[in-house]
Prior knowledge:
The protein is an alpha/beta fold. It has helices spanning 13-30, 42-45, 54-63, 75-84, 107-116, 130-134, 145-150, 164-174, 186-189, 193-202, 216-222, 233-242, 256-263, 286-295, 304-319, and strands spanning 32-37, 50-52, 68-72, 89-91, 121-125, 138-140, 158-161, 179-180, 207-210, 228-230, 247-251, 268-271. α12 (233-242) packs parallel to α13. The protein starts with 12 loop residues before the first helix and ends with a helix. The structure holds 1,3-dihydroxyacetonephosphate and iron/sulfur cluster (SF4). 1,3-dihydroxyacetonephosphate (13P) binds next to loops. 1,3-dihydroxyacetonephosphate binds at residues 38, 53-54, 127, 141-143, 185, 213, 232-233.
Amino acid sequence: MTTQLISPRALSPRRVRELQVEVRALARTRDAVILAHNYQVPEVQDVADFVGDSLGLSREAARTDEAAIVFCGVHFMAETAAILCPDKTVLMPDLDAGCSLAASITADELRAWKAQHPGAVVVSYVNTTAEVKAESDYCCTSGNAKQVIEAIPEEREILFLPDLYLGVWLERVTGRTLNVWLGECHVHAGIRPQDIVRWQEEAPDAELLVHPECGCASQCMAFGNERTHILGTEGMIRFARSSPKRRFLVATETGILHRLRKEAPEKVFEAVSERAICKYMKMITLEKLRDSLRDWRYVVTVEPEIAERARLAIERMVAIA
Ligand code: 13P
Ligand code: SF4
């Protein structure tokens, strides 16, 4: 295992190995698969069965044979797995791992918005609560948002939520006009234009990988520059693996650097902003993961009536590549 320690309360390498052995043994006896998002701390990524983006994790949850899924990510991701897999137990090591973007729209707010646009198609980013998904026609992730918009007939009006910057980027790449909700992720919105300027001045040899949730000005400065690529987290991994270039600056949550360095060890990856840390993603620790498997907690459930209404939108997301 190639764990590097960057978690807030660093464990000794020996303790990390002991806990990882304990976690793997518990996963086996509990018949559980461990899924981890690309932003998780390195020692959690390294012990997982599968590490990926929101789309990959949903697809993996849908196809798993194990009786239980332990979700190392944030709450909406575990909820999505619970909706896709009603016969499985979905566990989350810390229920407080939320998402500021998902919190930026409620189901009541969406119902009021829909009432102002009767007949519009509702496309929700996966970073939303189950109640919001239940009010939606399609879900999407950063990995397939463009394809989802393109799957909707040109003449239909679209409400896109909740991320403003992803919405603006989608308008650019699809040429469609969208009604966009004014939500944002505090981590990505906090990556400032001056962080991009630093890259342009100090690293003219580097490729820049920018998540579409990043602030509008940062995206604008990046757009149309042939060394700049606007990609979801798994898109960044695929791009870095296949690119002949050696140096990459990464504008997203810094947890992804561990995965990038593992997948392309011969290349150099640097964060555009070292401050881009999602405190929610970092709430999941190796100890909490061990406790979750050992004590069978915390079970994530979605009310059957909400799950039933949200399932179609999520299944459309999983199906559209
Ligand atoms: P990805 O779907 O690109 O992994 O992003 C998820 C997320 O929460 C971004 O902040
Ligand atoms: Fe939510 Fe932003 Fe954290 Fe992603 S990085 S989980 S969008 S708060």
